[in-house]
Amino acid sequence: xxxxxxxxxxxxxxxxxxxxxxxxxxxxxxxxxxxxxxxxxxxxxxxxxxxxxxxxxxxxxxxxxxxxxxx
Amino acid sequence: xxxxxxxxxxxxxxxxxxxxxxxxxxxxxxxxxxxxxxxxxxxxxxxxxxxxxxxxxxxxxxxxxxxxxxxxxxxxxxxxxxxxxxxxxxxxxxxxxxxxxxxxxxxxxxxxxxxxxxxxxxxxxxxxxxxxxxxxxxxxxxxxxxxxxxxxxxxxxxxxxxxxxxxxxxxxxxxxxxxxxxxxxxxxxxxxxxxxxxxxxxxxxxxxxxxxxxxxxxxxxxxxxxxxxxxxxxxxxxxxxxxxxxxxxxxxxxxxxxxxxxxxxxxxxxxxxxxxxxxxxxxxxxxxxxxxxxxxxxxxxxxxxxxxxxxxxxxxxxxxxxxxxxxxxxxxxxxxxxxxxxxxxxxxxxxxxxxxxxxxxxxxxxxxxxxxxxxxxxxxxxxxxxxxxxxxxxxxxxxxxxxxxxxxxxxxxxxxxxxxxxxxxxxxxxxxxxxxxxxxxxxxxxxxxxxxxxxxxxxxxxxxxxxxxxxxxxxxxxxxxxxxxxxxxxxxxxxxxxxxxxxxxxxxxxxxxxxxxxxxxxxxxxxxxxxxxxxxxxxxxxxxxxxxxxxxxxxxxxxxxxxxxxxxxxxxxxxxxxxxxxxxxxxxxxxxxxxxxxxxxxxxxxxxxxxxxxxxxxxxxxxxxxxxxxxxxxxxxxxxxxxxxxxxxxxxxxxxxxxxxxxxxxxxxxxxxxxxxxxxxxxxxxxxxxxxxxxxxxxxxxxxxxxxxxxxxxxxxxxxxxxxxxxxxxxxxxxxxxxxxxxxxxxxxxxxxxxxxxxxx
Lengths: 71, 761
What we know:
The structure holds two protein chains of two kinds. By secondary structure, chain A is mostly helical. Chain A has helices at about 5-10, 15-35, 45, 60-70. The radius of gyration of chain A is 25 Å and the shape is elongated. Chain B is mainly alpha-helical. Chain B folds into two domains: about 20-480, Cytochrome C Oxidase, Chain A (Up-down Bundle); about 575-610 and about 630-760, Orthogonal Bundle (Cytochrome Bc1 Complex, Chain D, domain 2). Chain B contains 26 helices and six strands. In chain B, the strands form three sheets. Chain B has a two-stranded antiparallel sheet with strand order 1-6. Chain B has a two-stranded antiparallel sheet with strand order 2-5. In chain B, β3 and β4 form a beta hairpin. In chain B, α20 packs across α23 (about 675-685). The longest helix of chain B has about 35 residues, at about 395-430. Chains A and B meet through α1, α2, α3 and α4 of A and α2, α7, α8, β5 and α19 of B.
């Protein structure tokens, strides 16, 4: 007996539909969430290409310290 | 500070501030290398394209040489345009922009250089194999298995280098361009590996592990997503970095760019089957492909609009700055091609457009307009920065490049759209008596030759513009300083974990809102998405899952549900000689001009015969359905003409079809069949499950017997003697077999019929 015999006997048509629904749910969640975000919340990161220094350094506290020592 | 909205935040681990500010330099030497490679391969790819366009109107340009035929050179052109030109361009973009977006030098300079030289070696390997007929024949995946392994290795090196850079980045948030690069690296790896699974028969020959319908399905899952993840996502990353840089303003809507990204990743991967409408592919798969293709239209246009609106308030600069001109026209072509793609995926439109030049016009709008113009916009913007010159060598030449290139594309695509629609309408035209209005295929070819000349003109303009661009970039390079200055960048040292505020959900004890309310609010504010965006590993995993789920949902049923490919008992394996003849068909790239797929449409069945069934292709490794009919379909060519017709036709096509634009193949009547390789090929096919019977032991002997029989028939038909060892006999054997099995009685029925005949007194 081949794998394809087993699979065709298992009648898995419903799985494709479940997959489609899962896809729609995940996709809608991303769309909704991004759409519902507050205006301007991405303004800072959108400037990453334009800035020479990191916009949100991974050690942010240090940047603050560096900036303060600069003053 | 990240916007955590009103959700309470916790400060995670406030560590000591003893680390220092780090100094580092970006590696621009590698970007310069990829830049030069882009320019050189851009010229090669477009000149090859122009040569092919000329060969279609002047077939004698193949000079009767096997290495110069359309069938062998077309893959060279497409591979050069996609993997050499666009490939090097995307690597230049990734290496330049990633370092700056991540505020880190590339992970390892040696890996960068191995990537560069490895990729160029692969391109040279392509140029040295494809014209010699070493080809898997799957579109954009023609390279044979040793080169495929090299591609996989170099790609992994690129991935290690790229993800290593992400790991060492100093910028916490991964900018959207980086997401597009991640999707590219992951998906191209998956596509490349699964579409190229083959069993080698020798160093230069292999057979796909998939057959017929499954092979076609895998190929177009690959082919369409190669367009998506090699020519679209990395160039969108490029767009989201270089356009704001050139316009000196942030992207119009970062939110829209996120939607653009997830829509592309979620939806694109489902769209592949639209390349196989009305073929022997199961209908549910092609309908799914069509619906998802239609869904792609909106996010694509969202991306285009986002890019164009980034220029709001800067349109006056577009008139002066050639870089912005290239970007504006490039993005417009993106919009045009992504509108046209969904349109072409609609079944009724596809019935007209498929196999015609319409598809060719569509891809050239995409590659010349979108990929080409985005690339040259990027190169012109980078050139003074990379070569540290005050400005580009000549702004006027860049303007000339822009206008010649734009006119070139327009001449090309307008002529080829007209050619496509004309030919499509002629194929399906019936006269008043209900017969085909143009029964002779060559009439539909001759009709569009004037438009092919216009394509040559448009193509020449584009080639000229690319050469001018190359000259301009070369001259900018000659003005470089004696030693490149390496600009030093300062940034806080990297910490193992982020030390700022995290967007974790913490519900204050004094809150009057219910915990569920907090959770809903937290979810709606998408802080979780922000957390993902910062975590490359999780992000990559999610992209992979999105791509894999979509792929598996389509692939598994096609492969495993038996009803999708109903078997036909009269369809038998090719004989050893036919198999060898089929390999010649593959070597010569016949599928570049001839399909083997008759669609269930009246105009097709009238012209070519019974429509193609899925079960007819179960021994086809790889499938040869083709995607373009420069010549007629061959699915039912078997038995249509005597052997001698094929021999004369291959030697000099105009001797049988006066107006044919097919190149001659005289070497097939001279070159000898390599009988000694046949057994190993049959062995591989047997290994793949083809029931070869006695051929398993004596493939060579059977091949010689069949060759002698056909050669004798050729002599009987008044043809030349002494062909029994020549390749033309093997090819004829294959051509005469093609599409004939379904007309035969199944073996069991035939035996019963014989038995009953014997029993009848």
